Amino acid sequence: MPTDIRPTTGQEALELLKEGNARYVDSLTSTDEYMQRRPELVKDQNPLAIILGCSDARVPVEIVFDQGLGDLFVIRVAGNVVAPSQIGSIEFAAEAFGTQLVVVLGHSKCGAVTACVETLINPEQNYSPNLQSIVDRIRPSVYNLHELATANGQDVDADELVDRSIRANVRMSVSQLRHGSRALEDLTNSGQLLVVGAEYDLETGKVRFLDG
Fold first, then answer.
1. FRET partner for 206 with CA separation of 20 to 30 A, picked from 38, 51, 59, 151?
2. Is 82 exposed, middle or buried (0-12, 13-18, 19+ CB in 10 A)?
């Protein structure tokens, strides 16, 4: 169960995870329908949707969509960006399990998108090479919005730019999945796969679907 106690060291965090897993194992004998399904999932899985979401700890995908064990095939990466490993994971799930829905799930107050906006407003902002690689994948979806915001010479409203950029980044990821993979494009064109974008609101808990 969630705890308000926050560890002060990595070792304490590890102990909390071990304790949590022990509680989970104890719960496997419960009458909860999700737990009763677990044995059948040992041999196979049949997820109803593939979710490409952000790594943000505030967006636990199965909880957000009220789904249980085996229901969702989830790929999480900061900024819900599309890279070869994410595409490959989605191709695998779509082809191996016949899953017919992909949802790119962004969320409000996304740190990765915020970092990208900050680099446009303040070009001297520096990140580690690995974090910069994520920012660079988000940049194309944000750049035009930033250019429009600065075209009249007025100061940029950073919060508004972040909000609009989050949705633009989701839409860019959707487009990349629809058109950046022959396998996914063929499935989409044949009607066997639906790829949509969505945004989760941290304040309300509501998911707004952007298309589809």
1. 38
2. buried
